[in-house]
Amino acid sequence: MQYGFFFDQSRCSGCYTCIIACKDWHEWELGSEPANWIKVKAVEKGKFPKLSVSQLFTTCLHCANPPCMDACPVGAITKRKEDGIVVTDREACLGNTGCDGFCRAACPYKAPEFGFESGAKVQKCDLCLDRWPEGKKPICVEACPMRALDAGPLDELKKKYGNVRSAVGFGFSEEANPSIIFKLRGGGAP
Q1: Measured between alpha carbons, how far is 28 from 49 in angstroms, rounded to an integer?
Q2: In what order do the strands lie in the sheet with 149-153?
Q3: pTM higher than 0.85, yes or no?
Q4: pLDDT per position as a tens digit, 98-136
Q5: Of 88, 90, 110, 162, most Cβ neighbours within 10 A?
Q6: What are the boundaries of each domain within the chain?
Q7: 89 close to 76: Cβ distance less than 8 angstroms
Q8: CA 132, 146, 125 angle in degrees (round to 5)?
Q9: Domain 3-187, what fold?
């Protein structure tokens, strides 16, 4: 089984509630933590007068073949067999001064992050794995006021939303095979 995300690009307004909820859930003082486990970026397309702006949600996409895991020299990044969630062992991590962030360099989505302080350890989204046993989805999903996010077993997400694997501003990595399904503005191809 592989868990993943659904992102409805047609609904996201770029409000950053998912980012704030994530930081709050993990008890980071807002504005103090240099890492963002979630990023929302505005993607501009077109030429005047035919312009468009779409929002793109990215985080760790819990890839089927996570390149970050293979790049880690000490095995501090692993993939859980029961749900495919990619997790980090911050104690095993060599830190930003020990290996130069090989995991971040290998990730096509730059999901692994390090703080700015010397020796900062790797951190990234863990799909709120502590919430699933309580029957709760990740906090970013529950917090989204536009209902642009969902998460769960990838097969169930495909049945519910289809199998669009690309979005405006998103580069799908065939090698990594990220666990995300999209809905686009107008429902068509990007």
Answers
A1: 42
A2: 149-153, 3-8, 180-183
A3: yes
A4: 888 899 999 999 999 988 888 889 999 999 999 999 999
A5: 88
A6: 3-187
A7: yes
A8: 40
A9: Alpha-Beta Plaits (3.30.70)
